[in-house]
Every structure is written in C-alpha cells, then in structure tokens.
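Worked Example 4.2. Read the sequence first, then its structure tokens.
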Amino acid sequence: MTAAGSPLCQIVSDEELANPLQTVDAAGWLGGDISGKKVLCLAAGGGRQSCLYAAAGARVTVVDLSPAMLEQDRIAARQRGHQVELIEGSMDDLSMLPAGGFDIVIHPVSTCYVPSVMVVYAQVARVIRGGGIYISQHKSPVSLQTSTQPRAAANGSPRYTVEHAYYRNGSSSKSGPNTPVPPPAANPVAARLREPGAVEFLHRWEELIGGMCRSGFVIEELAEPMHAKPDAEPGSFAERARFIPPYVRIKARRRNDQTATAVTTQRLWIPEN
C-alpha cells in the first residue's frame, strides 16, 4: 500500500488544505466546526487524513498497522507544522487508548481486512465518548461478491456476475469462521477495488448496520459515494459503479446508555509469509 504512486500514499495537497474541513466533510456530518475536538483517525495512515483534521483545528491521533503509512503522516505533519500523535496498532485492538477518550472517530475503508467487524465496533465503542460521532466507510457487500469485468448482454449492456457467496461461512446459520473472498483476476478495475495481495472479507449488511447498532451506536446518516459516470468507458471502474456501488459511508453516534457488546473472535488475519 505504500508503494510510490499508490493513491493511499498521497500526502495532503495545498489545494485540499485550503479548506480542510470541506475536503473531508463535504456533507456536513461533523457540524461545521471541530476545533479542539479529539479525533481518532483509525486505520487511516498515509499523510492525508491526519493533516486535514489537524488543519481544521482538531487534536488528532492516528492508529495504523503499517509503519510506512505512519511515516507518511510523520512527514506530512512535520512539513505542515501540525502536532499529530501516531500509534502503530490494529483497528481490532485499541487497548492502548483510554476509554471515552475521543469525540470523533474517522474510519476509512478497511474493515474488509478483518474477519469480524463486530470486534472493531466494540473497540470503537469503548474509546469514543457518549454522544461522540463515528464516521466509517466500508466496501459494499455486493461489490465484493461481483465480477470486476462485465460480459456483454444480448442488448449490448454490460452484465456483471455474482461470483461469491453472501454467507461466507457456508450457511445461513451464522456459525463458523468468516472465509476470505477470493481475489479477482488482475485488471485495472480489480486493482482499483481490491488491494493487491491483501486478504479481504465480506461483511453482510446485518453485520455492518445491525452490528453497529448492537455495539451501542445510533445510525444518523448513510450514503453511497458517487463514483458512476454515465459516459464512462466500457469496462471501467466508473461504468461498473453505475450498476454496483463500491462503497457505503455511515455516520453513527455513540449512545450514552449502552455498553458495547463484548466480542472475542478472531483478530486481524495476517499471512505468515
């Protein structure tokens, strides 16, 4: 992910910093002012998110599993003169952080890398204060199920194929471990949708939405970021997005009267080789 040219490693630009809060919160989900707020950028290293929230006046902590991604944040903070706390760690174990220590948790697309999203939700619920805002983005289940390249239908329209099971443990009983989604064949769209070499897991809507509610959050907003283009080149990412939304973005608020359900399931899966 930290190879030169990767979109995840593009340090924040001057143009983005001209109006940092607008850059990260065009929808206004954060209320227009985050000055002095304690913000956790979870699994969000890379030198962009941290500087944007710091420039908007927040007190920023970044937790990321990759030292190289955190180094990008360190470089960007030094260049921009921001104070940012950087912690190497996994999204499914935030035991190094204080309970109720954050007003806002920002969580870009990354839950696909853990077998159980409930483990992550429980960790976030513990570190965010009552009434705090949790904004997360996830890969859409149907996008992970579906082919990255279309076949032409009789009428000439692209036809995408559901290739992978929705219930990844092999049944609807919800028992047994989640199993990874097989990687797609290499092509430009697959490279945009799936991180090369990464092990990814599909999380059902019941888990993404219901699991968040069961973890002590109330969902206030939900959006499917627009990536579709009506005049997109056939077989491109933008054409596929006309039929299959790749991502979902959720705004939730931590309830004051609930404790997150304890979850003890498999941690982030890391290959041995």
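Now turn to a second chain, presented in exactly the same format:
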Amino acid sequence: MQQILLPFGSDTADEVPVYAASSLASRYDATVTAMFYPRLPDPVIVDPMSGGVVSYDGLDDEIEAQKADAGKKIVGRAQKCSPPLSGEKLNVDMSSLSNWRQVGEVCRVYDITIVARSSENPHWQTLFEMALFEGGRPVLVVPQHCDRPFGDTVGIAWNHSTETARVLALSMPIIKSAKKVYIIEVDGWVHAGPDGVMLQKYLLGHGVESEFKRGEPAGNPGERVLEVAENAGVDFLIKGAFTQSRLTQMIFGGATRAILDKAKIPVVFAH
C-alpha cells in the first residue's frame, strides 16, 4: 500500500479523516494525495460524457475561493498529526478534479481511498458509493473524531461472498501487518462459498495466523459483527460491501448498511 487518496471539498475540509490518512501513511511508508473537489452551486450545467462543467456565471471565482480556504485547512490539520503529514508524504492536489463526481474515477489509480462518515454532511454517502462502485479499489470509511491508532487488531467479516473475497485480497497488506487477526462469522449469514476454515488455511499460506470469533444469528448480521468485533478488541474491520443489492438493503436493511451507520472503528469496504 503506497498510494492513498484523501478527497476533500470546501464542505468537508474540517472533517476529512486526516489523522487516519497520516496513520496509514506512517504504517506503510505511503504517500497521501489530498485531492480537492469543487462543490458546485446550483444551477450548473455538467457534460454527462466528460463530467466537466459546461457553464456557470462566476464559477471560477467561487471555486478559487473554495480552494484557498479548504487547502489551508487541510495543510494545517496535516501538520498537527503525530507524526506530521507533510513533505514528500503529502501531495495536495488542487486542480485535477473539476467537480466531486469525478472522485470515483480517480480512485482507480490509488491503493485505497479514505472517506469520513459524517452526521452533518449527507454528501459523504454519495462520495462513498462513487468511490466504491466506480473506483474498483478499497474504500476506508472512518467515523467522525476517530483519532486513535488502528490496524493492530483486524477483524474480517467473513460471509463467503465474492465481495468479501475481493476486499480480503485487496486488504492483504493490512492483514499481514496486524498483530492479531480474527475471522468473524455470524451463524446463518453466509453465501455459497469457502467457509472460515478454508479462509484460515488461505491466510496461513500467506504467513498470517488467525482465530475464529462467532456471532449469534439474531437480528441484523452487521450489528452482530460489530458486537463480536468490539468484544474482541478489533480496531480495524474488513467487509465486502453490498452482497445484497442496495435497494434490498434500503428497504429491509442489511449488514453493510448497519456497519456503515454504526461502526465505531475504521472499516475498509470493496464491492
């Protein structure tokens, strides 16, 4: 894991998880690119093919004002991290994106993208889904005010699915660097596929020892996963996203939605 993307806008510069990016960069000797996206006021005309802005009276002045404010905040917060995120470890890109809907595309050339879960800014979910479904790379969702180290005790929410297998493979550097790894299974929450014993053998083939933790088959499986993870002292969770359709999860609920909404620890997702 060498290239970390931290997208931010004028509306998120105060809450984007700079500490989490700094922690990952320090742990893996990686570089963080904090990439600015303009939040375009309405009404605007956007080219559906390129995603670029066609016209807006006074747009340039507004974007420049957003850049000046947001860029200053990001650099200031990065310097306050321990260790500080600066120099060669921080690249602040203020010009690559013309609007926030391009974030999903640029994720494709980064090892991981970091998004903050926000109780005040509803746009974070759209940003997460663009990165998840358009980027094809892992997306790390960090709860607000998460300023403690993570990654020593990793939990894998294993339901045998393709999505979980994908995030597992993409997150192998995280798993290999952990001091403790738990395979978390919830009775009844499974798809057709390799069970936890086979996963344990796979991990051992990569030099990773792991232990099982099992949840009861009551209520939402995502909530059970979080309960098991909390009891085991997990500080970083790995989860395949939306193994059921998003529509099904919106109507009936689902593990991904529960974990997105309620996790107290960073969670890395892939689809």
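Notes for the reader: Confidence is low (pLDDT under 50) at residues 248-253. The chain has ten helices and twelve strands.
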